[in-house]
């Protein structure tokens, strides 16, 4: 399958019905999700691997990983409504993916690879939320693919180093955030984000 074909498929994954601003629910664009899946596939981190999508939302990374021949995929999110949407879409498309409603801090499932777009921690009520996702990734997986605000990368690098991990790949994207909450001032705001591939040395 070509990357563009995967992107077209992922464009059909349903979005949030009522996104929650306090946990920063912004669906990863299909173009970015498809690119990350192809990068992870190229590193040998998806095919025949056990994948966990932390903070999966409606499951765009989960579906992408399964289409890219992951052996087993589990999507995890605290939002019951988002998990319901993901489950319904998986059933509709006969995709064997397990979706679980649980707080990330309570996750115990181990895997080969974590792929995630955690909360950016941009809201005061959600400050440093991405740290908990990184720490959980270190607990349960060998490799982490994670998206972060580019301006926070120095902090993430220090965190990874303190956990005895290693960042061996980075890629920058413009992440379009559409007007979806009362505090948004623009129809679309492009935010600089960075993908990190982190080796946890488990």
Task: Describe the protein's architecture and organization.
The protein is α/β, with parallel strands linked by helices and 202 residues long. Helix content is 32%, strand content 25%. It contains 6 helices and 7 strands, in the order ααβαβαββαβαββ. Strands 3-2-1-4-5-7-6 form a 7-stranded mixed beta sheet. Helix 1 (3-10) packs across helix 2 and helix 2 (30-42) packs across helix 3. The longest helix is centred in the first third of the chain and has 13 residues, at 30-42. The protein is globular. Mean pLDDT is 90; it is low at 122-126.
List keywords for this structure.
202 residues, seven-stranded mixed β-sheet, 6 helices, 7 strands
Count of helical stretches? 6
Order of helices and strands: HHEHEHEEHEHEE
Strand content: 25-35%
Q: Oligomeric state of the chains?
A: single chain
Total strand segments: 7
| Mean of all residue-level pLDDT scores | 90
Distance between the termini: 31 Å
Shape: globular
Question: Which residues form runs of ≥5 with pLDDT under 50?
Answer: 122-126
Structural class: alpha/beta
**What is the CA-based Rg, rounded?**
16 Å
Short description:
With 202 residues, this protein is an alpha/beta fold.
Q: What is this structure's SSE topology?
A:
Layout: H1 3-10, H2 30-42, E1 50-54, H3 60-67, E2 72-77, H4 80-92, E3 98-101, E4 113-116, H5 129-140, E5 143-149, H6 153-162, E6 166-178, E7 188-199
